[in-house]
Amino acid sequence: MTKRVAVIGAGVVGLAAAWALERRGITCLVFEQGAPGGAQSGGESRIFRHAHNDPRQFELAVRSRQGWREWEAEFGLDLISPDGSMVIGEAAVARLGKYDGEPGVRIRELGPAQLREVLPILAPYDGPALIDDAAGAIHTRLTIASLITSVGLNLVPERIESVRPRPEGGVEVVSTFGDRVFDSVVVAAGAGTADLAATAGLKVPSQPQAHMRLTLPLAGGIKAPRLACLQDSSGFFGEAAAYGSPVQGNREYAVGLALSTPVDLAADADPLSGLADRTADYVAEAMPGLDRGGAVSFQRWVTELPWAADGLAIWQRGEAFFIAGHNLFKLAPALGSALADCVENGEVGRHFRPEDKLGEAVLEAR
Ligand SMILES: Cc1cc2nc3c(=O)[nH]c(=O)nc-3n(C[C@H](O)[C@H](O)[C@H](O)COP(=O)(O)OP(=O)(O)OC[C@H]3O[C@@H](n4cnc5c(N)ncnc54)[C@H](O)[C@@H]3O)c2cc1C
Fold first, then answer.
1. Residue 49: pLDDT above 90?
2. pTM, whole model, 2 decimals?
3. Which is the most buried residue in 26, 58, 91, 321, by most CB within 10 A?
């Protein structure tokens, strides 16, 4: 018997789950309250990187990279740019260096001259630097558009109010248009996941985090056949957690800061404007190759789990599965597959249960 499955949320994770289910012969309805791909998955460009603190997540990234190649082959598009991803700063270099020699990953040291070659917009820097050549910038809009096309008419524009597993089996899904019962439900609703989990009696401890980035054109005259993504934990340019990724065929570059502590909404009336100023200061220090006059800002609230910035997990109640975490775009193909496994097997797989705290482990634990 074919299972009746609902996916709630048409961000990259819900769409990836729907794609994986369809490939296994399981048709699903995808419920979305707004524009598909318009929430945390919105905007242009995300970094694909292998570097993670948790070796289990590194392995997930390797599997995901393979998944990106499968999507590229199916959609006939390049979804990850060949620019690579560079890390600077001792901690990040030590972390990425541990993965050198792992299958599918090529890590190289960069001297100052090579550094200028891979990221010509960066100010002079002569500290430790490594590049992961199989990483790069994800073409987010192409990815979302391709996944939407593949999910096609199964996309339902409805807001879901509650998800309740029934004692007699199946899961009741209530929307403003009425009630339906499915054999299995995947909730990948981003900022809406914790509220929907609460309707099923589950506590998902995701916290809102402010995320702001500036996208700037390259300064006149700079040609950049290659613009590597950047993770800067060096503090050399005044910030200990900055990142960058190319957009628009390397004509623009997006720069953002990752905050280490959640924003206190009660205490901080306008957390995003302070973040915008810090990002602009960082660009002024670190990126003389960008035209600051052309900066455009992009703001979103993201959802982080308390144990790590890259933390993620899947909660289960009956046949309903709820995924939460941050920095999920790069892992979307592997997460889609993990969620399809949940539906097929009726349980959350190894490493993904909340008690596994995926993202928390440090490399030394390997
Ligand atoms: C500026 C920025 C930079 C980032 N950089 C990176 C990066 O470099 N690399 C990386 O991997 N990740 C990055 N991330 C994080 C990544 O983009 C997100 O983790 C990912 O897009 C989350 O996808 P999602 O499908 O889980 O959530 P979303 O994209 O938020 O999708 C959830 C969907 O569910 C819908 N929904 C919610 N509630 C309901 C409801 N009740 N009924 C129906 N629909 C509902 C929403 O409308 C939304 O469309 C970044 C995020 C931002 C904002």
1. yes
2. 0.95
3. 321
